[in-house]
Design a protein that fits this description.
Oligomer: single chain
Structural class: alpha+beta
Strand content: 5-15%
Number of helices: 5
Number of strands: 5
Helix content: 40-55%
Largest sheet: 3 strands, antiparallel
Distance between the termini: 30 Å
Strand order of the largest sheet: 3-4-5
Radius of gyration: 23 Å
Order of helices and strands: HEEHEEHHEH
Length: 196
C-alpha cells in the first residue's frame, strides 16, 4: 500500500525529521538519506550498541577466563594429575582431549578445529545480521562464541582441548564447554519467551 514504507519505520515517539539536502521525508515524518536507506532512530542506534557491547564483552570474558584457567592447569599440574576437592564428587583433573564431547571423534583434532571455526562464523553472522535480537540472545551468542574460541585456541596450540573439571560421574570438561552449554540453554529460553 502507499503507506507501507512509512508504517514500517513509523513510531509515535519519534520526532519529525529536519528536511535538508541530504534527506527527504518519508510518510509520517521519517527521514531517509540520499542513499535510499532509512536513518536509524537514536533509541535504535543506542540499543544496537548495547547489544554489541553485551555480545563482545561476553565472548571476550569467556575466552579470557577459559584460557587463564587452562594456563593454570597446564603449568601447575602434570598431565593426568587429579586433586580431590570433594572426594568422590568433585576433583580437578588435568587431561587433554583430542576428540569432541565425551571423547567422541578422538584424534580428529584438525577436523574438529574446522568445525569450531564454522560455528564461530555462524554465531558471529547471526549476531551481525539478525534484526530480531534481544539482550538475552546477544548474551547467549557471546557465550557460545567465547567458548568455541577457547577450545579452538587449545586445538591450535596444544593439539587437543585442555579439560580439568571432574565431577567423577561425568566426562572431564572445562569452562569453555560450560559456557557453550549455558549459551545454548539461554538461546532456547529466549526462543520460548519470544513464542509466548
Amino acid at each position: 500500500s502507499g503507506g507501507g514504507v512509512g508504517n514500517l519505520f513509523y513510531h509515535h515517539d519519534h520526532p519529525p525529521c529536519r528536511a535538508g539536502p541530504a534527506h527527504r521525508r518519508l510518510d509520517r515524518g521519517y527521514c531517509q538519506s540520499g542513499t535510499g536507506k532509512p536513518t536509524a532512530r537514536p533509541a535504535d542506534a543506542a540499543l544496537g550498541r548495547l547489544k554489541a557491547i553485551i555480545f563482545y564483552i561476553a565472548a571476550l570474558s569467556v575466552l579470557a577466563l577459559d584460557q587463564l584457567s587452562k594456563l593454570f592447569f597446564t603449568t601447575s599440574f602434570k598431565l593426568g594429575q587429579s586433586i580431590a576437592l570433594i572426594p568422590g564428587i568433585f576433583h580437578f583433573t588435568y587431561i587433554q582431549n583430542s576428540g569432541a564431547a565425551f571423547s567422541i571423534l578422538r584424534g580428529q583434532n584438525s577436523y574438529l578445529a574446522i568445525i569450531a571455526m564454522v560455528v564461530m562464523v555462524a554465531v558471529f553472522s547471526i549476531h551481525y545480521f539478525s534484526s530480531k535480537k534481544n539482550w538475552l540472545v546477544d548474551l547467549s551468542l557471546g557465550l557460545i562464541l567465547g567458548g568455541s574460541a577457547g577450545n579452538l585456541v587449545d586445538r591450535l596450540w596444544h593439539g587437543a582441548v585442555v579439560d580439568f573439571l571432574d565431577f567423577r560421574i561425568w566426562p572431564v570438561f572445562n569452562l569453555a564447554d560450560s559456557m557453550i552449554n549455558i549459551g545454548v540453554l539461554l538461546l532456547i529460553i529466549s526462543f520460548f519467551k519470544k513464542e509466548r
